[in-house]
Design goal:
By secondary structure, the protein is mainly alpha-helical. The strands form three sheets. It has a two-stranded antiparallel sheet. A two-stranded antiparallel sheet has the order 3-5. A two-stranded antiparallel sheet has the order 4-6. A hairpin with a 2-residue loop joins strand 1 and strand 2. Helix 5 runs antiparallel to helix 6, helix 7 runs antiparallel to helix 8 and helix 7 packs parallel to helix 15. The N and C termini lie far apart (56 Å).
């Protein structure tokens, strides 16, 4: 179906209200509104509008935006993948892509959700709070990538909207999640089958109980994110979240299972499967640990006839092998001699419109609680217990038929990460931690973060964010950088994406305020508020 977007500006303008409106889940209408007003929609149309916000809110996991953002930004920084784009491996960012990606969120996804909030805030409070949970999910991720952003005024339709610090964004997120969780918990006591948006909710099919678990788990994630900059607030938020119901079983996992059949919507990982190869970092961990998820996450190297191929690379055929990040132009010739994503994404006959898109997994909940317990917070259990439950939950997610003996064997594994032997790079393993929970407190923390990273796969956005927060797991250093902001020779990493030029033109004063709130230059190496690590050592 052809849809139409009318706009009076080409610049970002975070508050723009021109978007595609879905009148119901299978019928979309284009509505032209005054961008200084909230859209005039009926109650019937709210479910369709929620669908539209969900679709645009996960744009970086689907179709074109996966190729523009995830493939080039988060995948290479996550330790999961290298990309076949040499420029992306060297951290060269296409400036036009920055504007395009932000436009999807601030001109489509967020105005849609703000419209729902405005239409339900004095009536259908269950819908209001579910919409708010989804808004938080989008907003904190944008702040984690760019830094200061508009929150309160985003989607308001104002010509100029105020930027707020990352700390302020997180404060809003905590307040919104708390209010939403409190309301839904009370509402579900009276109506356990409470449903919001019905089939218009393409993630949980309207099940309010699952949105409550999603909200509490997200609050726990955000609490851990700020634990290095505001440990007291982090402890209070984490303990409150853990006291509620969270995503604890794989049935709670958040997937976009049924992709709506319009606009060429596809699973972005499937669409880009030929451009994503195994990173040597994840090879080292999975091979050393004897991880049974390896043949699920990645595919064996297929035979390639490449003239002059060194025997060390030719030997990759039939095995699972990763390439060092930031590889050289000479390595690019043999890029197909490394493992592609697993069969469910890159197998023969896979159709990109039929593969579910993952958003959040229950296994993460246990690792968040394990880290909290390790810190001495009241999570309702021990660090070891949560750590082992996180591993078991992830193994059963990807390997539903796995025997308990196999789970136990993995949990009791004492072998360290392996040397990936990624020719021509001589690096050995970067750590000696096993899977078996250590008696050493320092190693316990590294194990918790490392196993959480393995369980987050293929969510490279959260993996990159958590790596910035913890500098764990221990990943191989990028071999080169053509990005003037990021000097890998002194250990720097990419810590954010810069603001789009269009926004600097349309809102120069607000962008200047944002950079001041950032606490450093508008550069790819300036840390986000919650990242306390020195970026590089001179």
């Amino acid at each position: 179906m052809i849809t139409n977007i009318k706009s009076t500006r080409n610049s970002l303008v975070f508050g723009s209200l021109f978007l595609l409106l879905n009148a119901c889940t299978d019928h979309f209408e284009a509505i032209n509104t005054n961008k200084t007003q909230i859209m005039d929609v009926t109650e019937k149309e709210l479910a369709g509008l929620f669908t539209r916000s969900q679709i645009n809110g996960i744009a970086c996991l689907t179709s074109d935006q996966y190729g523009r953002a995830t493939r080039y930004w988060s995948n290479p920084q996550s330790g999961y993948f290298v990309t076949d784009s040499y420029d992306a491996e060297q951290m060269i960012v296409n400036y036009d892509h920055i504007t395009t990606v932000q436009n999807v969120f601030f001109s489509r996804a967020i105005p849609a959700i703000v419209t729902i909030q405005e239409k339900t805030k004095t009536g259908d409070l269950a819908a209001y709070h579910v919409a708010t949970i989804w808004k938080v999910y989008m907003m904190y991720q944008l702040a984690d990538v760019w830094g200061p952003i508009p929150y309160v005024e985003a989607g308001s339709g104002q010509e100029s909207v105020a930027y707020e610090s990352v700390e302020a964004v997180y404060n809003h997120a905590f307040a919104d999640l708390t209010a939403a969780a409190d309301y839904l918990a009370n509402a579900l006591q009276g109506n356990p089958a409470l449903n919001v948006f019905g089939s218009g909710d393409i993630i949980f099919e309207g099940q309010a109980s699952k949105w409550l678990k999603f909200a509490n788990t997200m609050r726990l994630r955000l609490a851990m994110r700020i634990s290095n900059v505001n440990p007291e607030r982090a402890k209070a938020e984490a303990e409150a979240a853990a006291a509620g119901i969270t995503m604890d079983v794989n049935d709670d996992n958040a997937w976009l299972v049924k992709l709506p059949t319009f606009n060429g919507l596809e699973n972005g990982m499937v669409r880009n499967r030929n451009s994503m190869l195994m990173n040597a970092s994840i090879e080292s961990f999975m091979k050393g640990f004897g991880d049974p998820r390896l043949p699920v996450y990645f595919s064996p190297v297929a035979n390639q006839n490449i003239a002059g191929m060194p025997p060390e690379i030719a030997a990759n055929v039939g095995g699972y092998h990763g390439l060092m990040p930031g590889y050289s132009p000479a390595d690019r010739v043999y890029i197909r001699m490394y493992s592609a994503p697993g069969p469910q994404w890159a197998g023969a006959g896979i159709i990109s419109t039929e593969v579910p898109i993952p958003l959040k997994f229950a296994a993460e909940t246990y690792f968040l609680k394990a880290e909290g317990a390790w810190k001495g917070w009241n999570m309702g259990g021990t660090a070891k217990g949560f750590y082992e439950m996180g591993i078991a939950t992830s193994l059963r997610q990807w390997l539903p038929g796995i025997e308990q003996t196999a789970v136990n064997d993995y949990l009791n594994g004492e072998t360290p990460p392996a040397n990936p032997n990624s020719f021509p790079y001589p690096d050995g393993a970067l750590t000696d931690i096993p899977v078996k929970f250590s008696a050493s407190s320092e190693k316990q923390y590294e194990q918790i973060i490392t196993q959480k990273w393995l369980a987050l796969y293929p969510d490279s956005w959260e993996a990159w964010t958590e790596y910035r927060r913890t500098r764990l797991p221990r990943l191989y250093q990028r071999r080169g950088s053509l990005n003037a902001d990021v000097n890998v020779n002194v250990g720097q990493i990419m810590t954010r994406i810069v603001y789009p030029e269009s926004e600097k033109i349309s809102q120069p004063e607000e962008v200047a305020k944002a950079v001041a709130l950032l606490g450093g230059p508008d550069a790819y190496s300036t840390p986000i508020w919650w990242d306390v690590h020195p970026n590089g050592v001179n």
